[in-house]
Amino acid sequence: MKILTGNDLKTGAVTWWDGTGWSLHVADAADVGDDADAILAREEAARRVNAAYAIEAELTASGVRPAHIKDRIRGLGPTVRPDLTLKPEDPDAVREVI
Amino acid sequence: MYQYDHYDQAMVDARVAEFRDQCQRRLEGKLTEDQFKPLRLMNGLYLQLHAYMLRVAIPYGTLSGAQMRALGNIADKFDRKYGHFTTRQNIQYNWIKLEDAPDILADLAKVEMHAIQTSGNCIRNISSDHFAGAAADEIIDPRPYAELLRQWSSFHPEFSYLPRKFKIAVIASETDRAAMRLHDIGINIVRNDAGELGAAFYVGGGMGRTPMIAPLINGFVPLDQLITYSEACLRVYNRYGRRDNKYKARVKILVHELGAEEYTRQVEEEFALLIAQSIEPPFAELERIRTYFDEPAFDADASDELDRTDPDFAVWSDRNTHPHKTPGYVSAVISLKPVGGIPGDATADQMRLMAELAEQYSFDECRVTHTQNIVLPHVRKADLFALWQKLDAAGLGTPNLDQVGDIIACPGLDYCSLANARSIPIAQQISQRFHANGKGEILGELKLKISGCINACGHHHAGHIGILGVDKKGVENYQLSLGGSEAEDTSLGKITGRGFDEAGIVDAVETSVDVYLAQRQDGERFLDTYRRIGMEPFKEALYG
Amino acid sequence: MVDPAQNGLRFRTDAPVSDPAVTVEAFAEQTNALAVRIEPGEDVRLLLPFLDRLRLVEVNFPSFGDGRGYSAARILREAGYTGELRAVGDVLVDQIAYMKRCGFDAFQPDELLDRGDVENALSRWPDVYQPTADGRVPIWNLRHG
Fold first, then answer.
1. Which residues form the Nitrite/sulphite reductase 4Fe-4S domain (chain B) (predicted)?
2. Least enclosed by CB within 10 Å: which of A57, B39, B149, B495?
């Protein structure tokens, strides 16, 4: 699947296109098919997202998994500070993104 | 240390107002991201993996207690209660909101600090020797020259859209503690045969994907021509540095392609024209700046004795102090490299404690080192034990300066959008490994440096042992190099051979260290042994 | 294209030169030309023999990130050029204060600049550190009378 990610212009937070808006959680990412460029252009112009780009991902049993480790780390947080990730209570979260 | 007058303060305040206005125009849509990006970068604001990142300038690495405290308070107020000290003596905050950035700059301005030109294709923060003004081996304190260069380079109208970034380091001793020759311009303040002070200019060094050691282009620039000569170096670069390829745009490539001799000729030609323009500051200005760096009121009767009764303290004081020019004093190095910790990170509480200790024990001064540690430059030997106890209680007493655990590591793929691989977990595993197996205790000086991509922010080219993270078909892979040095015996490391995975690179470092332990002769450091026996024995052990 | 006179970004009192700016190469050959346009890769010092007849130099900025034109401007002013020095092309409001310091006294940006933003930009800096061709007294000298 193809999904979109970027950062919130004001806060810088990593966001994922969920089909209607931008979510903080990669699990919400929607498959955009061939619409990536059109959505990116529209959303960037409206300043609802900054520095957004399209990436490959796959749907696994545990949810949406970006193909590249960089985007998996973006989706979770720094692997060296589990306390600062989006899943501080999940001891397996870091292992799963690597 | 230097203090702003109303002119300096007004310039920094104007910059805060300017950036507030620029942020506003970005949020309103009057600036596109392409237009805004160079403006925010020139205020130290990056967009990184997880958020905006703000890099704050620490000119020549020198901080007062109040400034260090303000850095801690910013970490609490605007970030997640920590900061990261960098290899260019700056500090970075990792979780910044764009809408907060102008307020942070305003808080910094209140303590005479800023984030001006900590990124972008302009002249960056001027770095220097972290023992400046204290080291027994310096010929003069280099920081007044660095401060003059800071003022000259701030808001320089001609050099804000250079081909690439431009880094300058200034030192004033034979011993190089600032990786001087790995900068775009390295300046060494020297004395000529007549006893006069001048500046030796090395131009065209750098790391990155094409590491180069800067050649000497002028061995003695009189100090009343320092700014004019710098301007000539920059103008030749601004006009002729390559702009067709980002990776060939640093001045090192220009110097390399022209040859040092031809580059020097062009600089001298430009200098001859510029000297007629009288752009040099009045010499009284250098004298004015110099008064701020006068020696503190050292106690002439300070005891040179050290009570070494506590064995842990004795180890720490042997490893983490540096000789001071004044009897009875030392420079103490606070390691930000606890075993298994994140190199260069300090919590807000630790920053405030270091601020307090600087005020109490070091004439209100601390320094950031390019190896991501903190120095209290002027500590009485009589106070050293009390200082160490407080540091140790706060997790800041690790006795590993310049040892295998004192690793330089860039933020890597955990934070950086340019990185190809993670650096920090490798550093953590190596420091844990050598702590657990006890070998860390017997290795002596061993400088290990890790970069998560070819941009080499972790100085891997200059590590006795260097590690470079690369992306191998979506999987992290690590190349090992040996034999680099950023000191006065500057050299660039050589790659051992094929790379390793995450577990493999930690083993490979240990294997290399074992070769050294088996082969070292009396008093040799890892680097000395490598230079004597060459790469082959290491290759044999690694790849057999 | 924005007319610099219309946009108010001309800081001179003499009448603008109406001649079209020619290339550096053509300028050297046309002994009656008064106006020249210089591109980033061209050596501005080729113009120095002709300062007596030059009335307008347009310095082109094809992209705002290419800063060679800043050096070109200062070199002309340092050599004594007093005619109009006009920045043209991808010239952004956040750059004009620095450009003015380098000796530009007219601006013809591809995109119309907001008048309020221009005024803010030009009044931003109370003083300056470096001496340049704009004649402002640097802080270094103010400090020492």
1. 119-271, 402-542
2. B495
